Amino acid sequence: MKTASFLLLLTGLAPILPAAASELAPEPTDSFGVMAGMNQVLLGGANLAVQYETENFVFEYSHGIHLRLNNLNGIDLNREEKNDHLTVDVPWTTGFGIGYRLTKEFHVSVEFKAHRFDVSAPDGEGQVRYTTYSVGPGLFYDWTIWKGLYLEPALRWWPTVASTLPGNNHTFVRSDGSTFTHHAHDWGVFPNVSIGWTF
Length: 199
Known about the structure:
- By secondary structure, the protein is an alpha+beta fold.
- The chain has helices at residues 3-13, 17-22, 38-42, 71-74, 79-83, and strands spanning 31-37, 46-53, 57-68, 87-101, 106-120, 127-141, 143-146, 149-158, 160-163, 169-173, 179-183, 188-198.
- The protein has one domain (3-18, 33-193): Porin (Beta Barrel).
- Helix content is 16%, strand content 56%.
- The strands form 2 sheets. Strands 1-2-3-4-5-6-8-12 form an 8-stranded antiparallel beta barrel. Strands 10-11 form a two-stranded antiparallel ribbon.
- Strand 10 (169-173) and strand 11 (179-183) form a beta hairpin.
């Protein structure tokens, strides 16, 4: 679904997975990091996150703005949205995660997110705004580049568990009187790469 992002993720993970597998228990250290999402920039927006790591746990909060899912030839649109020629914008997406460190660099998290959508049909055939809520797991690897500078490839699954759309769908009416149904957007598997600095 997101081939370019997934290839970028695999490229970043390839040289470090063997090292991750051989790591022993996490070193006792607390750190604070600030990150910016790289994929969100490609979608015309931005995402900032803060992350606090203890010896065993990771706490993270992030907030993204002004994402246009039609960018990059609609790589983040699902088949239904593409077929209906919808414009899907995300004014904001926000939430937090709680993770456990399996090694010094590698951790797994459960994330709780809310996402605002503005969905427009072509030719002025209507617009709908709604919010979805997702709860799902994520895999993260902190790859140190230089001093406090690091990359964090991530692979997330953000299934939609609820939305403000009645019945989780909305019916658009075309100019010729025919109708089509838009279902609340589900992120599904969502790879990303962030760049950050540890203090």
